[in-house]
Amino acid sequence: MEAKFAHIIVFFLLALSFETLMARKESDGPEVIKLLKEFESESWCKGKQFWPELIGVPTKLAKEIIEKENSSINEFPIVLNGSPVPADFRCTRVRLIDNILGVVVQIPRVA
């Protein structure tokens, strides 16, 4: 009985140490959004190129949103966070970096 109680306490302490994953809103960091929008306007690729609001969103939903917002993007490789990726750049590709739960953990960007 005491061992089960100890396991429950340890579980809750571990659970409290993790941050919850939430989608970011424009109100969470307007200065970051502004910088990203300025960078977009100076780029040679067409359309929207950064989606900071998609952090914490399921990967499949993020893909659908990006397709709607920039029709020139047609490649969506899904990459597990921490995996190596090639260094080449394409205006038609957005890598979706997710975790084992299938949630976007890095800002999706044209890469």
Task: Provide structural commentary.
Keywords: Protease inhibitor, Serine protease inhibitor, Signal. Residues 1-23 form the signal peptide. Belongs to the protease inhibitor I13 (potato type I serine protease inhibitor) family. This is Wound-induced proteinase inhibitor 1-like. The structure is a single chain. The chain has 111 residues and is of the alpha+beta class. It has one domain (22-110): Trypsin Inhibitor V, subunit A (Trypsin Inhibitor V, Chain A), CATH 3.30.10. The chain has three helices and three strands. It has helices at 2-17, 30-42, 59-69; strands at residues 78-80, 94-98, 109-110. The protein has a three-stranded mixed sheet, with helices on one face.
Q: Which CATH class applies here?
A: Alpha Beta
Oligomeric grouping of the chains:
single chain
User: How many domains comprise the coordinates?
Assistant: 1
The neighbouring-strand order within the major sheet is 1-2-3
Low-confidence stretches: none
Instruction: Give average pLDDT, whole number.
Output: 81
Order of helices and strands: HHHEEE
Main sheet makeup: 3 strands, mixed
Gross CATH architecture: 2-Layer Sandwich
Beta-strand level of the residues, as a percent range? 5-15%
- The backbone outline, from C-alpha atoms, is elongated
SS elements, strand count: 3
Please identify which CATH superfamily we are dealing with.
Answer: Trypsin Inhibitor V, subunit A
Instruction: Give the helix/strand class.
Output: alpha+beta
Cα gyration radius (Å): 18 Å
Helix count from the secondary structure assignment: 3
Percent helix range: 25-40%
Q: N-to-C terminal Cα separation, in Å?
A: 54 Å
CATH topology: Trypsin Inhibitor V, Chain A
Family: Belongs to the protease inhibitor I13 (potato type I serine protease inhibitor) family.
Organism: Solanum pennellii
Protein name: Wound-induced proteinase inhibitor 1-like
Keywords: Protease inhibitor, Serine protease inhibitor, Signal
